[in-house]
User: What shape does this take?
Amino acid sequence: MIMSCGDHKVPSVSVLKGVGAAMVNKLQRLGIYNLQDLLFHLPMRYQDRTSVKEIGSLQIGDEAVIEAEVVNSEIKFSKKRTMLCRLHDGSGSITLRFFHFSAAQKNNLKVGKLLRCFGEVRPGPHGLEMVHPEYKSIDAAVNTAIEECLTPVYPMTEGLQQNRVRSLMAQALLWLDSGELAELLPKELRVQWSLPQLHKSLQYLHAPPPEADRELLALGMHPAQRRLAFEELLAHHLTLLNLRQKIQCDGGHALSSPGGSCAALLEQLPFSLTNAQTRVGVEVASDLSKGLPMLRLIQGDVGSGKTIVAAFAAVQTVENNFQAAIMAPTEILAEQHYLNFKNWLEPLQIKVGMITGKIKGKKRVSQLEALANGETQVIVGTHALFQEEVRFYNLGLAVIDEQHRFGVHQRLSLREKGRDGVRSPHQLIMTATPIPRTLTMSAYADLDCSIIDELPPGRKAVHTVVISDERRDEVIERVRSACREKRQVYWVCTLIEESELLQCQAAEVTAEQLRLQLPEFNIGLIHGRMKSIEKQTIMQQFKGDPENTAKIDLLVATTVIEVGVDVPNASVMIIENPERLGLAQLHQLRGRVGRGSVESFCLLLYRAPLSKVGKKRLKIMRDTNDGFLIAEKDLEIRGPGEVLGTRQTGEMQFRIADLQRDADLLEQVQQLAMQVNTNQQLVEAITRRWLGQGEEYGHV
Ligand code: ADP
Ligand code: MG
Assistant: This one.
């Protein structure tokens, strides 16, 4: 099996001595298929076996080579049979402890023997110990060779020994020496960015000299490591740019500038747009008019008013006789968007439809028909919009309100639906919560970015209180007095289990308990397993309308209300077990309050005791309402995978790079990507090298 890489061929690991089918399998479990993969399998740390240490100089925690004479050897029978072997080297003594040992070992470790051992130094009942060290007997007269390089310790899988990997790596390094692995970064660029050569970096990392800076290596900050991370980040970046180019190659619909309907929409809004909304709206309108498919990301904090910006884009699209689709991550949000869009657009004689998984039977058929024959001009929906049976008449714009839940693939599939053979629809992605800049630069490199950095006027910061559930009764009293003041309250139940069923059951139980404790108020319940119509009714009862005051005082909910739900009179939120949620999700939930004119509160009712990290996270929630800051902290604490959500599955997995550690490289990566972007051969070689197994990612 030969894979091409640039002009070179990379042989499969099966060419190595001692690698049969079983070993091939084990290596595959580590993502290693060929010699290049093997060489990119970097040590996670190193041992220093390059010099013999005096026992007297050892510290607890050291990993060291010692040479010493056996001065005592005994077997102890306490709970466990143990062999203890006392060694002395003139500078001090140490005990070797074995819990498992053979008769041969016992005979071998006799008084007077000279041993060379390698192990970790630990404290024992009678001074320093090594437990199950590696050892061999040596002859005082012969000078046995010691390691010349630091010894790599590799990430492992079951049934594979370090020594096997080391010996395979030694063979791979010989292959590398023969110059078979192409250097893909042009020399002038390597010089410009001070990046060491590929083969030198790999040689160094698999066999560093004794004087190598092990601390720097442990941090992953050695130039040799950084060079590899750089190339990998570049590969990902180029893949996304390539994707963007391919989409834009299609050409897009050049829509004329916003016309009468847009003006009418603006006229009819009960508020005026913030400066930030206007600015971003202009950016979007200009993209739409360009004749290239728009690929734009709108970021803005919870409540910054992203939806209305999307509505203007939809109206501009309809003015040009194309359809627009708005896709939401949850059913509840789709329903809410549907109501909003209907309110905004129907007065303009624009027909709005809805398709979700729960709309079935005749209703579904008629929705699908109206969409296919062009009668429906704006369609709102969930993932259901991706389904095979959904046909558009002429999709001009896809808006994805994503909450990081849709991946590149799904976006591509929506684009397929709107493709008329020549042109691709415009795409507008809105994130539900801000994403740290480093992640935008990497995971969303294919998109232009607009930021709504201003909240509508009159918003008040939400006061957040962190409180133990041992004080639940006090919390209930606070809820009682809030409800008496005619404030409305959300009570959010969370669960560790992914199971929606369990979450709903927990919410049901909580609602029952609260009804007993707060009998004087109306308590509603909403969760993901209710029918659409039931959910709508409950939301309407909670929201009320201009004529009727709300019928529900307190709404018990699962995290289904996380995204987008908008009831301005609700000003208190209790979140149970907030320690189980990510910060971005908490921020999103908390964004449901603080939408009206009164002061709002969010009570994070945690289950005691709270871990150290848990405390730190909730403190961040208490200290700030700034979604961008929270996103940065979330990234620090949980790492990029979690923060990006499903988007990262298979798409943002790095072998060597680490988005946090290497964040400072991204600026350079971006620049370099622009420089080499047009070199198709290089782009192909580099993406194949780093994302070769990643399959469709980046393929259009
Ligand atoms: P998000 O950015 O979180 O999606 P929404 O689009 O749901 O926010 O907007 C939140 C609320 O703010 C909605 O009730 C919306 O009607 C309202 N809103 C949006 N823009 C403005 C504005 N410029 N002035 C006042 N209210 C606004
Ligand atoms: Mg929103």
Notes: Residues 51-146 form a domain with the OB fold (Dihydrolipoamide Acetyltransferase, E2P) fold (CATH 2.40.50.140). Residues 306-307, 401, 432, 564 surround magnesium ion (ligand 2) (CB under 6 Å). Residues 1-7, 646-650, 694-700 have pLDDT under 50 and may be disordered. The chain has four domains: 2-46+162-219, 51-146, 260-452, 463-624.
